[in-house]
Write the structure tokens for this entry.
Amino acid sequence: MSRSLLVGVFFLGGLLAVMSRHDATSAAPPAAAQAKDVKDKDKDKTVKNIPIRWPEPIKLTLVAKNDEELSSLTEMVSTINKLSEAKWKENQIVPSNYASDYEFIRRASLDIIGRIAKPEEIREFLKDPKETRRSKLINRLLDSDEYPKHWADLWANWLLGRSGVFGRGKYHEWLATWLEDQFSQNKPYSSLVKSLLTASGENDDTDKGGAAVNFILAHVGENVPPDHRSEEGYFQMVPLTSRITRLFLGTQVQCAQCHDHPFYSNIKQEHFWGVNAFLRQVKPSFTQAPQMGRMMTYNKLTLQDDENVAKSSLVYYEKRNGVILTARPEFLPSNSEERHGAALPPGAQGRQRREMLAEFIINHPQFPRAIVNRMWGVFFGRGFVNPIDDFNDQNQPSNPELLDELAAKFKHYNYDLKRLIRWICNSNPYNLSYVANRTNDKPEHEALFSRMIMKAMSPEQLFESIVTAAKLEKAESKDGKKALRDQWLGALITNFGDDEGNEVNFNGTVVQALMMMNGKDINDAISRPNGAVALAIRNRTEAAAIHELYLTALNRPPTPKEYRTILSQFRLLDPRIGMNDYRNPNRRYEDLFWALLNSNEFILNH
């Protein structure tokens, strides 16, 4: 088959795609997933001539379900806007212009429900009055069934990772099912965390909350030798100790396992083992942590507390000089002035210890700050503190006033995650364009959120977006889609995390690009008789079909230049001039759609 050049469509100064999908196996992967290259080209070609002036304010009217919600929404959106603007002026930064409605619906859909928008959703969105359409969209997305599912996926990955026995398969599914129920009920974040830390029972019990035990079961670490169990418990619980403080307090204490923390003046080695001591009466149903095998059967597991071990609550640890010391259950200090944190009351045994640990975590001043920073990072590509789980004396927030205000109000409104998302997504920073200007185009400017940071889709977002664009949800049964999803993610995700539970942000890779180009599933989906391409061109003119394919894949119409380029390429591919590969009149549209799905613009959340 001869090579055929499909189209050279420009986005952000870079080629969208320059090959036929049938030539993908012999071509280099697109530079697609490298956001930095896109930004550099954008900066070179576009930014230099942009006049530096503050963007014209857009009239956005906030919409809420009742007066109380509207009042808090108005207050907090105003707070975010004012404190952000103050930082911009302090640093002599002019914010980027506001994102278009097309950019906004795609961005909000990816961030809130984990997929791109559908053409019919875009058309409905544009029917709403311009002043209220964005706020109404945010409410619709939060009220949809896809919101709890997407956030359950996110949290299951944060809690368990994406690899290993608990990072995939039944254990991961059981926890995600339980999490989905929590998010569908909009349970307070504090309640969710308490359940994760105190749950007991069978790990497949998604109704009564037993599935929450998968979090603890996944991170028990090395087993304690049998002759030491009466004093030290069943497992060392070192990975769980680190994971708890990172996830729920944004504090990395793992290095304090062996020595005093180098970046926290008040976190000593005794504090790591003090937190660890709360967990030593946990008793899993296994004596050796499950390992991923070729024939993994995912046997049902249980978790209880055994009051007959570690009764003294002492944990033995070794200093670098070889001296053996003991630590009692004691939590981290609340501030830099404190030497000791809250201690376990005398006589507390069994599950009481984990319940006290949960209370100490939830009441710690870092608890609301950590989750606000994490949530901000989801929507902006980075937190006020970055990495999002590494608050320390040498890594201060880029806007501490805003972080503290959001944390205080989040706690005041009973840790309501939906409310926090509404505050963030209705704010001016979230509504800004990704296109930089001369005052905010440096990497160090990203911490002030004067423009949207481009983010590569996560593997889950990419899969759901391809399913949405190709309209595979109409072709696949629930089980069929699950099998396809498992196959896709299993092939795409490798080497996530490490033995210390570090969180690894997924960025688009060559592997991702090659899978996109060479995937038989993608080509089959594009060519389906009732797929996206067939539906887009049915009863439509050539121009209208191109418009529909763009709306389906990129959530925007093509620019006039893109129209002209595509139409000129279509003329070259006309079978009447001897292009035998294109005797099927649908092929040109299929190749165009394939190119759109393999573009920078599709893979990036901007």
User: Anything to note?
Assistant: The radius of gyration is 26 Å. The CA atoms of residues 318 and 324 lie 5 Å apart.
